[in-house]
Amino acid sequence: MNGSCSEAPIVTRGLTKRFRSGQVAVAGIDLEVPAGSIFGFLGPNGSGKTTTIRMLLGLITPTSGTVQVLGQPMPKAQLSVLPRVGALVEGPAFYPFWTGRANLLRFDAADRTADPSTRKQRAGEALERVGLSNAAGKKVRAYSLGMRQRLAIAVALMQRRDLLVLDEPTNGLDPQGTREVRSLIRELAGDGTTVFTSTHLLAEVEQLCTHAAVMSRGRLLRQSTMAELRSELRPRLVVRSPDLEQAKQTLAALGVTDLREPGETATDDPTVEGDPGELPIDKLAAALVAADVRIHGFGLERPSLEESFVALTGEGFDVAE
Ligand SMILES: Nc1ncnc2c1ncn2[C@@H]1O[C@H](COP(=O)(O)OP(=O)(O)OP(=O)(O)O)[C@@H](O)[C@H]1O
């Protein structure tokens, strides 16, 4: 890996894009993508992910703000930066009647920074890395969607890359293709490549990423490690009881805050939940019993990542695979 990669491979400051229509697609975002991370750039459709990625790669110019990729300013330094960045933005258009290998060679031949004398060898290595060596001689039209996407990633891997930027790499894939691409991304990151990947799928971030940033309506709401995001999700006290009013009063008197009755629950029992803060839960249980509250259920529940992101963005995420 290149020495300059110890610094964050992607840094933006106040990055903004206002389109001619007047629409502000990206509104002053400060991104910092650590070296070696699998960074999930998460947000609902239309939240500004693709526009951000296009600015990172120098495909469009920011209205204001700065972008540094691999320590150098973009788009100014794109000639020296882009050969070290593998990108998958709009999937490359393959010739269906050509083999996977022939398509790969064609893309490399169109790349002025690529060395023709090593082309065949590099194609062989890229096909090997994405697990397509055995299918390299097959026509692309016989490829599954997952194989096509892996071939697209092979295009991005024809040269040694310090950073991969992938825009919705599993979009449109069936579950098998999705698994293939996710495991490929994990392997690539395991080799030390930083991976920046956008997605509207929360499950993708949960399964794949070490870090995440959450976009909503052009703004960056949060960015942190996945471990931090998870630990921040405070557990809530959940009590099921036919004596709901009394349960509420008792808990409130002990200092449980934000008491609410959730709409839908797994059981028919009336349920109240609240934030117990630092209160020891055995004391809370004892107090309910002492107040003659009949208890059908009692415990701490951690909100899912989805619930907390929905609370953050006010929008739902697609949690489907
Ligand atoms: N060339 C353009 N001209 C005008 N508006 C645009 C242009 N490109 C994108 N937009 C608008 O900017 C907003 C952000 O779009 P963007 O494609 O960046 O979002 P996204 O998060 O990548 O969503 P998706 O996953 O649907 O692509 C959207 O409202 C979109 O309509």
UniProtKB/TrEMBL annotation:
A Pfam family of this chain: ABC_tran
Entries under InterPro entries matching the protein: AAA+_ATPase (IPR003593), ABC_transporter-like_ATP-bd (IPR003439), ABC_transporter-like_CS (IPR017871), P-loop_NTPase (IPR027417)
Domain of life, source organism: Bacteria
Occurrences of domain ABC transporter (ranges): 10-242
Keyword set, alphabetical order: ATP-binding, Nucleotide-binding, Transport
GO terms of molecular function: ATP binding; ATP hydrolysis activity
Alphabetical list of Gene3D superfamilies matching this protein: P-loop containing nucleotide triphosphate hydrolases
Family: Belongs to the ABC transporter superfamily.
Protein name in the entry: ABC transporter related protein
Source organism (scientific name): Kribbella flavida (strain DSM 17836 / JCM 10339 / NBRC 14399)
